[in-house]
Amino acid sequence: VNNRTFPKGFKFGTASAAYQIEGAWNEDGKGENVWDRSTHLYPEKNSNATGDVTSDAYHKWEEDVELLKGLGVSAYRFSIAWSRVLPKGFANESNPAGVTYYKNLIAGLKKYNIEPLVTMHHWDLPTALEDLGGFLNSDIQEWFVDYARFLFETFGDDVKEWVTFNEPKQTCDQGYGSGVLAPNIVSLGIKNYICGHNLIIAHGKAYRLYDKEFRAKQQGRVTMVVDSNWFEPASNSTEDVEASERSLLFTYGWFAHPIVYGDYPEIMKVRIANRSKLEGFNSSRLPSFTDEEKQIINGTADFMTVNIYTSSVAQAIPEPDITPLDPKRDLDIGAHIYQPDDWEKTITDWFKVVPWGARKLVKWISDTYGHPEIIITENGYHDNGTVINDLNTRGRYYKLYLSNLLDAIYYDNVNLTGYMAWSLTDDFEWQYGYNIQLGLYHVDFSSLNRTRTPKESSTYYRKVVTTSCLVDTC
Ligand code: GCO
Hints:
Homodimer. Pfam families: Glyco_hydro_1 (PF00232). By secondary structure, this protein is of the alpha/beta class. Helices cover 41% and strands 14% of the residues. It is built from 15 helices and 14 strands. It has helices spanning 18-21, 34-41, 57-71, 82-85, 96-111, 127-130, 140-155, 168-175, 191-218, 238-261, 266-279, 291-297, 355-368, 391-411, 456-467; strands spanning 11-15, 75-79, 115-121, 161-166, 221-225, 230-233, 304-307, 311-316, 329-330, 335-338, 374-379, 416-422, 441-443, 452-454. The strands form 3 sheets. The chain has an 8-stranded parallel sheet with strand order 5-4-3-2-1-12-11-7. Strands 6-8-10-9 form a 4-stranded mixed sheet. α7 runs parallel beside α9, α13 (355-368) packs parallel to α14 and α14 runs parallel beside α15 (456-467). The model has no long low-confidence stretch (mean pLDDT 96). The structure holds D-gluconic acid (GCO). D-gluconic acid binds next to loops.
């Protein structure tokens, strides 16, 4: 084995999410979710686009499974749309057609020995539950456990890798903080923390349910998918190095610390409590876990994950005045977070190509959480969706990121066991609609049958997957 070859058994796959690819938003008994509602009610918040049809995977899943087979991947990460299987969110009323859809998909994958890695919630909460307060209502903990039980019972004999929630930071910060994502509630610094709190406990309770009633028989694993940038210190001053660490703890640690160690990072608790006091709140804006809750959530990740696309710089700022929370200058974190102009950019502000950041981030996760098994659950490159000859852009991005991840495996001793490229096909990209795309396969959204065309990057990825190697001679 040379150091450009992925270890034996390394899992390559691709990732997707129900609302982004399925379409069929109101077909065969599916209930409405918060994304259906947001795109229909607030087109201006969603680039005037909807996921009503998108890449139409609901009807074209067989073709997509063939594409996966063609890539040679051993895993496929997808999500179940809660409101497709439980139209009103509650487990007492299920939708047989929705169940059949996922049963067929799972069977189709297994026929080709492609392992399903299933996300239970990828942002598409049923509106029936949102109308009761969604993630702001602590009852979500029980709604979610009932949903999880339904999924374990219905699919658990075939699904061995479960993800409870995808990118809770975005669900909460953007869904209940900045309001950029559905359900578009604006309450930065307050409701986003309440959302996160309920979500973490919901995760913990679902994990305990699996332990108690399903694990012995089904022998699967349960985790959460957490996203983060790497935050490079602006300088090697102690202050900037600390600002970088704080940024990681407020981003990745917000969710990872509770599910690994049973509580929020100390620095988060201290900073938010102090600031809340100065702001005149009579308790911290960050809720605290009871002892019983701590026990429920402690140790509830069977393996760790990370979605990484890009990196930022973190710079210490003087302890700020108490002014309205500004997402650009995150006062709770106490850092100025930015992406330098001279980093390689793509077509959006959001995104710089920073391959070395991926290596540093997985090393940080490994060091911070006791050398766990880690799977990259999303990584990918976006452009405006018209580029088929993407070998030197998307293909290059994959090569550079994978190369840095190999360095993490061989030189930093990180126990990285899998990698899911985002995404198999072009899709609905949330607030960007169809203006940015990340697929290995192009989708013609103007054609009735949503024709898929391989991009050059799919050929590149196939080569990596089938040889496990990044260079020509391994
Ligand atoms: C997530 C991600 C994906 C996006 C991807 C590319 O929530 O897991 O946001 O759904 O499509 O990050 O933008």
